[in-house]
Amino acid sequence: MLKLVVVFWALVGASVLGAGQANDSYQIYVQKECSFTRYPSICVQTMMGSGLGHEQQHVDIMLALANKTISETMLATSKFVNFSSQFKLGGELGAREAQRVHSVKDYYCEELMNMSLKRLDQSLLALKQSPRKNKHDIQAWLSAALTFQDTCKDYASGQISKRIDNASQLVSNLLALVNRITSNHTTTVTNHRSVDRGRFAKWVSQRDRKLLQATTIKADAVVAKDGSGDYKTVSEAVNAASGGRFVIYVKAGVYEEKIHTKKDGITLIGDGKYSTIITGDDSVAKGASMPGSATFTVTGDGFIARDIGFQNTAGPQGEQALALYISSDRSVLYRCSIVGYQDTLYAHALRQFYRECDIYGTIDFIFGNAAAVFQSCDLVLRRHKGYNAILANGRSDPGQKTGFSVQNCRIIPSSDFSPVKHSYSSYLGRPWKQYSRAIVMESTIDDVIAPQGWVEWPGAGGSSLKTLYFAEYANGGAGGRIEQKGAMAWVSCDWS
Q1: E strands along 382-463, which residues?
Q2: Rounded to an integer, what distance in angstroms lies between the CA atom of residue 149 and that of residue 471?
Q3: For residue range 328-340, what is the model confidence (pLDDT) as tens digits?
Q4: Contact 355, 386 (CB under 8 A)
Q5: Which of 91, 259, 270, 386 sits between 20 and 30 A of 314, alpha carbons compared?
Q6: What CA–CA distance (Å, rounded) separates 310 from 279?
Q7: CATH number of the domain that 118 lies in?
Q8: Which range, of 76-90, 102-116, 439-453, averages the lowest pLDDT?
Q9: Residue 357: inside a domain, yes or no?
Q10: Which of 310, 311, 306 is nearest to 334 (CA)?
Q11: Considering 208, 364, 397, 446, which one is annotated as catalytic?
C-alpha cells in the first residue's frame, strides 16, 4: 500500500511539473507573439486570461488570440455605444462633459462605433472560415474598424475617449497578429502592383466591370428632373433601392440634394461627369460638422458611380466643405467629377478605386484613411488664400493596410489658378496622422507643385517624419523631380 501511495504522489508531482512547464512554454509563446504588437502588455494580459493552454497548435493559438481580441473589442465597443445612448445630462461625466454629448452625436460618433462593430463582426466570421484565404479582407476590415474608432475619438473626450482607446488598442494588436498570418497566395509588389494601367482593381467583379464599361445600361430606376423618369430626385431613387446591385440612371441636370445612404450595391450612372451633377453648399463655416457638410455620403459597400459629378459650392470661404464622403468597401468611381475647395473628397476608409476622375480642390482635397487608388485622374489645384496640398492621408497605426496611390494621373492647376500659380505654394501632400502613407507614380506633374514636393503638418514638430511614407516614382512634367535624389523611392506595401 505504501508503494502505491508513493507511486501515486510521484505521478501527481510529475503531472503538476509537466503542467507547469507547459504553462511556462505557453506564456513564453504568448510573450513572443505579443512582442509584434504595439501594446504587448495588453496583448499578454488578454491572452493569459483566455483559457488556452499548451495543447493548442500554433495556428489554433493564433486564431484563438485573434478571436479573443475581437470578442473583447466588440464588448468594449458595445459598452461605449450603450454608454453614449443611455447617458443623461448631469450624469456621471459632469456638466462640462454633458455639454459635449450633442457635439459627439453631431459628428456621427455613435454611428462610427456601430460601423466599427460591423467590420469586427465580418473579421471574426472570416477568421473562423479561413484566416489565410481571407487575410486581405480581414486586414481591410480591421484597418477600417480602427479608423472608425479613431475618427470618433477625434470628436470625443473624457471617459468616452478612454473607452475608445481601450477598444482601439485591442484592434491594433489583433491587426498586428493577423498581418503575421501567411496567406495562401503571395501578392508581389511589381511594376504596376495590383492595379495595371487600363484595368480595374483586381477585386472588381466581372459583372461590375461589364457594368462600368457597358454602352447600354439596364437601369432599375431612372431619375429625371423633368419628370420623364421614375423619380425626380436622386434621393427618392436611392431610398427605393432594394437589396443587391441597384442601378440608378440619372439623366443630365443639376440636382441640388444632400444624400446619405447606408445601402449596399448602390450604382449611379449619369450622362457625363459635367452633365449630371449632384450639388450642395453645406460647410463648417455655415455651422455643419465636417462630415455633415458632405453633399453625398455613402457607407454601404460596393458603391459604383459612373459619368456623374459631385460638387460642393460653398467656396473657399466655406472652410471644410465636402463634396463626397465615402466609407464603402470595394467602391469604384469611373469618369466622375468631384469638385470643391477644402476637403473635397473624404476617402474615409476601406478599399476604393478612382479611374479617369477629375478631382478639384485646394487644401487637403483628398483626405482620409482608405486604401485608395487614383488612376488616370486629373487632380486639379484651385486658387486658395493660403497654400495648397492634395493628399492628406490619415493612417494612424503601422499595421493598417491603407494609403493613397496616385498612378498615371495629371497634377495641374485650374485655368484661373494657372496665371498666378507661382505666387502660391502647392504640395503633393502632407501627413495628417503619424503613419501617413502615399505614393505618386508614373504621373505628369505641373510645376505648380513646389520643389520639395511635400510639406509637414502644421504644429507637428517633425513627429511624423520618421514614421510616414511619401514616395515619388517615374513621374514626368516640370514638377516631376525624377532626377532629384530620393525621388525614385518605391513603396513596399500590399494594396489589395
Answers
A1: 388-393, 403-407, 410-413, 426-429, 437-441, 444-445
A2: 28
A3: 999 999 999 999 9
A4: no
A5: 270
A6: 6
A7: 1.20.140.40
A8: 76-90
A9: no
A10: 306
A11: 364
Residue 494 has pLDDT above 50, yes or no: no
How, if at all, do strands 410-413 and 444-445 pair?
parallel
* CA–CA gap between residue 177 and residue 60 (Å, rounded): 13
pTM to 2 decimals? 0.87
Q: Report pLDDT digits (tens) over 175-231.
A: 998 998 876 544 444 444 445 555 788 889 999 999 999 989 899 999 999 999 999
Q: What is the length of the chain?
A: 496
Contacts by 230-237, CB closer than 8 A, 24 or more apart: 233/257, 234/259, 234/268, 234/278, 235/259
Give the sign of the dihedral formed by CA 358, CA 363, CA 368, CA 372: positive
- Choose one of 178, 205, 223: the last residue of a domain: 178
- What are the pLDDT digits (tens) for 363-385? 999 999 999 999 999 999 999 88
Residue 115 has which C-alpha cell? 460601423
Q: Of 178, 207, 226, which closes a domain? A: 178
How many structural domains compose the chain? 2
Cell numbers 504621373 correspond to 443
364 is catalytic: yes
In-domain check, residue 334? no
Residue 326 included in any domain: no
pLDDT (mean) for 301-325: 96
Task: Please give the residue range of the domain that contains residue 413.
Answer: 362-496
Whether 442 maps to a domain, the answer reads: yes
What is the C-alpha to C-alpha distance for residues 400 and 141, in angstroms, rounded to an integer? 10
